[in-house]
From TrEMBL:
It comes from Paludibacter jiangxiensis. Pfam families: Polysacc_deac_1. Signal peptide: none annotated. InterPro entries: Glyco_hydro/deAcase_b/a-brl, NODB_dom, Polysacch_Deacetylase. Residues 49-246 form the NodB homology domain. The keyword Signal applies. This is Polysaccharide deacetylase. Its main location: secreted. The lineage of its organism: Bacteria, Pseudomonadati, Bacteroidota, Bacteroidia, Bacteroidales. One of its GO terms (molecular function) is hydrolase activity, acting on carbon-nitrogen (but not peptide) bonds. One of its GO terms (biological process) is carbohydrate metabolic process. Keywords: Signal. It is found in: Secreted. One of its GO terms (cellular component) is extracellular region.
Amino acid sequence: MYHDVYLETPHESGLQNAGSQKYKVRLCDFEKQVKAVVDHCRAKEIPLSRVMFTFDDGGSSFSKFIAPILDVHGLKGYFFVSTHYLDTDGFMTRDEVANLHHNGHIIGTHSHTHPANLSKCDEKTIEQEWEKSVTCLQEIIQDQVVYASLPGGYISESIIKQLSSCGIHKVFTSIPTTRQEAIAGMTFIGRYPVTCSMNERHVINIFLKHSYVRCLKSIKWHILTVVKSLLGDNYLRIRSEILSKM
Ligand SMILES: [Zn+2]
């Protein structure tokens, strides 16, 4: 699970809240990581079609840097777009989204406005977040949108219900697992986040069963889940206070 890739500064592309910065990867690192994955798969005879590179939020780097690198290696990207930000500074234009689709990449929804915690929104808001985004993307790509990724990884019964009514088939979570779950007629797929401190060896480590990167991400996720449930509504406020002081 990637977010943005940048050439000079993490502020070039995508969402700019304090929590998003660690998910932005330098272009030269991303290039090395993709090449390392391709080399690893060749060496281990893993078909490249089994590797899923996903990208969240809809930043301008999707079309500017990421897709051209994936294209060189014949890889398909899974690009998840928060549609409210299209055609604004640091995000893709509608034409760029259409081009990604026409070049064989997957376009999916990542909600409309990317609420801080979608699971805390009321039923009507959750419905509109998915409905607006899916309708907007379908108009742009002139095709069905059947993929979604969860903003912030938040999930609830309402979110599942509304995704299903929007015609979504596959939902990418932020849970670091290779297990897939069938819920309400949809497939839920886990992802391992790539952060700015990771190099290509760490990324390759994600491919290895029982590897330390997988274990570490799994432990972190479980701890975070406990912290979130203990802090409840205060979690996002405390997190952003801590991050703003870093
Ligand atoms: Zn996001």
